[in-house]
């Protein structure tokens, strides 16, 4: 794989904002500025090759064949991952209560780190935040993480809070879309999206099912926070992307493809082999229609920020959109370095683009992800 996350087209005409056709989505004449993004990763980092047998000890029964597990780990496209806990602590998590307690403890630490880093980068304080959206699909709590963190980092008592559960991997893109919707109606406000995903804590012990082994080969842990400001908020926006429009798509009769089966042992993952086929059949036409509503085609997009759902999913996205080699390189790199971090993954990619070389002003980007439902979410960005 070659190329970079930013693809430029010599001589490409970039349509002016007022040339775009009316959108059939949440588009508005107001835009949202992404003021900062910060990722927080657990300190426990492991090479994939070192995790394979340890995860086998956890998931398989003594003497059970490990051929499939080893093949999945070799083909997952993952080189290293971060785990919420040291790997030797996982065998002691023998029930859902213990795993969920670990999720709360580690999630609060990582969430605080991501929030404080994002506030500092955006040049704001916690008291400046008007809306906090917090998403996770790897644990549950009441009071929710956002309530605990709002007090912990010093947000105002009247801060609006929206805890989100159930969107899964799509929640990074969908969360960005929903805070954009909010800021269109509250252009003077500042909104924050926080994703906390500790996927390793959902791994099922003594479960040799294909879905559990796939999860054990792909997923990593992390948190990410986005600070976004409405069009009427003060502050410089040079070099920072703007959210122009968003659109979600929910596909009927696909509920069985992705999600959880929840039982006494916690969250048992559902990952169907038919997901790449749905992506090939549906994502391309829907995304082309979304872009067309703004006078754009895929070739007008210079930056693709795609959820790294796994090698087969990334290949399906590239195929259905007929993307050139290297267009999804940032997603492949992220998959290799931290694995699939569920909803935090696309936010980490958005942060990486700002750190490694911002796209040229006036160029377009698309941030996209998929999740349980089965569903997709598209976010149109402009630098």
TrEMBL record:
This is Transferase. GO terms for biological process: polyketide biosynthetic process. Pfam families: Chal_sti_synt_C (PF02797), Chal_sti_synt_N (PF00195). Residues 244-382 form the Chalcone/stilbene synthase C-terminal domain. Signal peptide: none annotated. The active site is at 169 (acyl-thioester intermediate). Residues 26-227 form the Chalcone/stilbene synthase N-terminal domain. Residues 1-31 are annotated as: Disordered. Belongs to the thiolase-like superfamily. Chalcone/stilbene synthases family. It comes from the Bacteria. CDD domains: CHS_like (cd00831). The keyword Transferase applies. One of its GO terms (molecular function) is acyltransferase activity, transferring groups other than amino-acyl groups. Residues 1-11 have a biased composition (Basic residues).
